[in-house]
Amino acid sequence: MSSGTSAPGPRLRPSLDGIPTYKPGKPAGADAYKLSSNENPNNPLPGVLEAAVAAAGSFNRYPDMGVSELTAVLAERFGVPTEHIALGTGSVGVAQSLVLATAGPGEEVIFAWRSFEAYPIITQIAGATPVPVPLKANGDHDLDAMLAAVTPNTRLIFVCNPNNPTGNVVHRAELERFLDAVPGDVLVVVDEAYIEFIRDPEVPNGIDLYRDRPNVCVLRTFSKAYGLAGLRVGFAIAHEPVAGALRKTAVPFGVSQLAQDAAVASLRSEEALLVRVEALVQERNRVVAGLRAQGWDIPDSQANFVWLGLGERSADFAAACAAAGVIVRPFPEGVRVSIGEAEGNTIFLSVAEAFRKEID
Ligand code: PMP
Questions:
Q1: Quick check: CB of 302 below 6 Å from ligand 1?
Q2: pTM of the predicted structure, to 2 decimals
Q3: Ligand 1 centroid vs 236 CA: distance in angstroms?
Q4: Cα dihedral sign for 21, 224, 339, 308?
Q5: Residue 127, pLDDT score
Q6: What is the pLDDT of residue 47?
Q7: Exposure of 140 by Cβ count < 10 A (0-12 exposed, 13-18 middle, 19+ buried)?
Q8: What is the pLDDT of residue 30?
Q9: I want to staple 206 with a disulfide (CB 3.0 to 4.6 A). Which of 218, 226, 346, 349 is the partner?
Q10: 244 in helix, strand or coil?
Q11: In the record, which positions carry N6-(pyridoxal phosphate)lysine (predicted)?
Q12: Is any ligand 1 atom within 6 A of the Cβ of residue 227?
């Protein structure tokens, strides 16, 4: 039977037209350094790779849907009850479950902007309304403005600490003041994807903040410091019923057995992984110092990337980097450059120096 040329296609939700498709950082060619996705440049530790390979032998089976071993190891590592932990397909998967669990049509999700580009997308997928609140001129979250944006329709607020893509952090005193002022029926998600790279002692650990606050949820990932970006595993720590709601809204079996076992092995090899994180922090400090010596005015990044607020020159700068064999991430407001292998970072610094001279 022919469908005929005039048959209508399937009826999709009209609101999808206004939702952008998530754009990943550009892949790099074989001989280029990829500094566009805030990945960990180190290959997996042998023990972590072995755990994943061993799990691969049974991928004809579904994974453990309760993620029981990893949940138990995380609960012990962070000193929280197992019922307070919910895992998902990357922390972006958990973030999407959080929005689905809290907000729908006519309800609002507040976040700083520019921040992690998935926030407005997952909000719109849920049919809810994104409420972006501009960062301050220096790249800090404007928590007073975010508080002023709260309405009776607000259901969720993301605080990205450190902020992707600027690297700025929110300090303990201001975050506590903010959390105490937000209505108790609004969920505040503190997205700590880059927490292991923080060296500023004034930045709080969200886990200390959630303990006596039922409306605070901490979001973490194995993708950055732990180097498991390709395996897709992230988690939330929150009180019931938030953690329970996440278990309902997550895709069933969304964390593969490879991911679960590699994450357990990573936590068991944490010391070795954190030595690598410290080396990346040292590299970040070298890059920040190098850029400032060249005359760049950049935020004090506490993450595994740096931010050049280049505005309309961003695309030109990214093209200059690409020509030199380094792939970076341009946004309308600026360029984000991940900290990678030392050689790639050094090439980026030399492009930045030449560009600085050109625009001075
Ligand atoms: N939160 C922030 C702030 C991020 O930058 C990212 C990744 N770019 C994520 C969450 C999602 O990471 P993943 O899904 O790999 O855990």
A1: no
A2: 0.96
A3: 12
A4: positive
A5: 96
A6: 97
A7: middle
A8: 74
A9: 218
A10: helix
A11: 224
A12: no
Residue 255, ligand 1, Cβ within 6 A? no
| 22 CA distance to ligand 1 middle (Å) | 12
ipTM reported for the complex, 2 dp: 0.99
How many CB atoms are located within 10 Å of the residue 196 CB?
20
Evaluate: CB of 261 within 6 angstroms of ligand 1: no
The closest alpha carbon to 229, from 193, 186, 265, 177, belongs to 193
Question: How far does the centroid of ligand 1 lie from the alpha carbon of residue 222, in Å?
Answer: 9
Residue holding tokens 């732990």?
A: 226
User: Which tens digit of pLDDT belongs to each residue from 262-318?
Assistant: 999 999 999 999 999 999 999 999 999 999 999 999 999 999 999 999 999 999 999
CA distance 323 to 321: 5
The sign of the dihedral angle between the CA atoms of 21, 24, 30, 32 is: positive
CA of 136 to the centre of ligand 1 (A): 22
In this structure, the number of other CB atoms found within 10 A of the CB of residue 252 comes to: 7
Per-residue pLDDT at 8: 84
pLDDT at residue 7, as a whole number? 76
Where the chain has pLDDT below 50, the residues are 1-2
Please work out whether the CB of residue 330 comes within 6 Å of at least one atom of ligand 1.
no
What is the structure's pLDDT at 26? 74
**Count of CB atoms situated within 10 Å of the CB of 359:** 10
